[in-house]
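Example record used in the benchmark description.
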Amino acid sequence: MHKIYILILFSVFFFLSIGAQSKNDPDKIKVLIVDGYSNHNWKQTTLVVKTILEKSGLFDVSVSTAPSEPDAEEWKTWKPEFRKYDVVIQNTNNIFNKKITWPRHVQKELEKYVSSGGGLFILHSANNAYADWPEYNLMIGLGWRKASEGVALQVTYDGEIKVIPADEGRKTYHGPRNDEVIHIITDHPINRGFPKAWKTPDMELYKFARGPAKNLTVLSYATDDETGINWPVEWIVKYGKGRVYNSSMGHLWKDDIYPVTYRCIGFQTTLIRVTEWLATGKTTYPVPDNFPTETKISLAGEDLN
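Model output (C-alpha cells):
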C-alpha cells in the first residue's frame, strides 16, 4: 500500500512538472495578444486565436486587455511589456469610438519594439484602428481608411501592383462576405508549399484599403466578383528591423463562437506560420494534407478544443 501511495504521488508531481514546463517552455515562441475593445467579438477572437496557436505546440500565448473606456483610470497602469515577447498580435480597433486610443507612451513602446526587430500581427479589423497615429499607418501599410488617407493597391492579371493615388476611387469598403479564392503572387516562407490558389470561406475582401504602403510586399489577392478587380488579401511590411503582417482574413463577428472563417484549415495554417515567421524569419510548421484547394474548402471540426 505504501509503495502504491509513493507511485501515485510521484506520478502527480511528474505530470504537474510537465504541465508547468509546457507553460513556461523557453523553446516556445512568446506571443502577446493585445485586446480590450473592438466593433468585432474581440474576446472570442482572442480565445480562438490563442487556442489555435497553442494547440500547434509552438507558442506560449499571453493576453493584455486594455481599458475599454477613453477616460478609464486603468489607462494609467496599462503598460504592456512588448519587449518580453517575440510577437505582438494587435486585436483592438476604435473605429466605433475614436476617443479610445492607446496612451502615447504605449504607442511609442510599440514603435520601438517593432523598429528594433519585433514582430507585429495586424489581426483583421485591427487595420481599422488609429488612423491618426502616423507610425501605426506606416507599420500596417494599408488599412480601413478614407479616400484621402493614402494610396490603394490593386493587382493586375499579370501580377503587377497598380497604385491608386489618394482621393482617386473610393474609401475602404467591403461587400457581402464570400467564399474567396486566395491567389499567391509572392513566394514566401508563410505560404511555401501552399497551392498557388486556395479557397477560404465567408471572407471579407477589403476594397481600396489605403495607407502609406511603404516597404510593403503583397503576398496574395482575391478577385472581386462584382468588378473583376484583384484586391490584396495579405501583405507584409518592413518597419525598421521589424516585420509586420496584415490581412483582411480572420473575421469573427459579435455572435460568432467558432465560425468557418477560423475553422478553415488554410487560415489556421496561415495564422500559425505567420506568427512563427514574425518571430523567427522562417517557418517549420508543415502544410497539412487536408489543406484547401482552389475548388475545395477544408474545415477543422466544430469543437474548438
